[in-house]
């Protein structure tokens, strides 16, 4: 039986803004299992990155905070950890790849210095041993001339190489969980394919669990075992990757699938979901998707639907699947 590595339970994250308190993530629960990939998909503004940042408590503490819920990693609630205990986890047992490597890498330090920092802190490697491990990690992620690149600076590398460096930094302490926040954003198609292939190879070699955040369903199809679809801070559908493509239930999930470019011929108009993700300060009453939903009923405008299991392992938050007496 596959062992549960991380469990997020009824997570609620709020931000204090000039407009009032904003619920960025509301009642989100999911599990990540050893050696498996959980894909989290949705449009920008749905709460994907905020959820990921909360696992390592990286959100801006001055304006945002976890209001309630649990984040249980190896049977310990990370929300109860002190900052000192979290430092032992960050970059060591749980590592993160951020969206834009050029803003994540420090321009004034060499590649070797930036990879070596985690090795020095968590594995106590210094000097020649540290540099040798840095070179080994660069070779692992497929960077040529690793012995030279280790002494170079971020601006001397291409976007694809910088993203590989970010992956090397994340993997250098052999984490049990890798959080990848849109790792292929801003990369050209060829480099995207290389990065995805690299992550698949790393998963095979190291048996690392991955939480993959993306808006690209093609990446989900390539990488994920389990999928969570988020909309307006809530999970609207949750199931295995095959069911997301072969048996989608929520109108939002169906809309995302119909919006893919492969669904239209050259010269045809691309299908799209009308409207935009609502502002977190002005969430519609009832189901937050109701203003954009072609299947909207009166109950959708009136009441928030619960997340229910309609088939084994397949959950959906939609009144189309609620009990008739509830509708």
TrEMBL record:
User: What domain of life does the native source organism fall in?
Assistant: Bacteria
Membrane-topology descriptor: Peripheral membrane protein
SMART domains, alphabetically? AAA (SM00382)
Q: Which residues form a coiled coil?
A: none
GO MF annotation terms:
ATP binding
* Family statement drawn from the similarity comment of this UniProt entry: Belongs to the ABC transporter superfamily.
For this entry, the protein name equals Dipeptide/oligopeptide/nickel ABC transporter ATP-binding protein
Which species does the entry assign this protein to?
A: Clostridium zeae
């Amino acid at each position: 039986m596959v062992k549960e590595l991380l469990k997020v339970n009824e997570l609620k994250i709020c931000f204090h803004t000039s407009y009032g308190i904003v619920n960025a993530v509301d009642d989100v629960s999911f599990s990540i299992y050893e050696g498996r990939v959980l894909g989290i998909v949705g449009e920008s503004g749905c709460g994907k990155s905020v959820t990921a940042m909360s696992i390592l408590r990286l959100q801006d503490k001055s304006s945002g905070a976890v209001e309630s819920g649990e984040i249980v990693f190896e049977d310990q609630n990370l929300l109860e950890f002190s900052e000192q205990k979290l430092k032992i986890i960050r970059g060591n047992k749980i590592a993160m790849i951020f969206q834009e490597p050029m803003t994540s890498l420090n321009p004034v330090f060499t590649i070797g210095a930036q990879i070596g920092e985690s090795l020095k802190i968590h594995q106590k490697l210094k000097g020649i041993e540290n540099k040798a491990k840095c070179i080994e990690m660069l070779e692992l992620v497929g960077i040529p001339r690793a012995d030279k690149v280790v002494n170079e600076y971020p601006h001397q590398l291409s976007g694809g190489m910088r993203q590989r460096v970010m992956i090397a930094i994340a993997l250098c302490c052999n984490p049990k969980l890798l959080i990848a926040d849109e790792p292929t954003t801003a990369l050209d198609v060829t480099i995207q394919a290389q990065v995805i292939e690299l992550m698949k190879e790393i998963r095979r070699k190291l048996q690392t669990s991955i939480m993959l955040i993306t808006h690209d369903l093609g990446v989900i199809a390539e990488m994920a075992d389990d999928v969570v679809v988020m909309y307006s801070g809530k999970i609207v559908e949750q199931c295995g990757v095959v069911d997301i493509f072969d048996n989608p239930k929520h109108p939002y999930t169906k809309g995302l699938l119909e919006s893919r470019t492969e669904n239209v011929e050259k010269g045809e108009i691309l299908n799209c979901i009308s409207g935009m993700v609502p502002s977190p300060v002005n969430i519609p009453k009832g189901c937050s998707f109701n203003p954009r939903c072609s299947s909207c009923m009166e109950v959708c405008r009136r009441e928030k639907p619960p997340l229910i299991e309609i088939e084994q392992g397949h959950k959906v938050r939609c009144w189309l699947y609620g009990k008739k007496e509830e509708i």
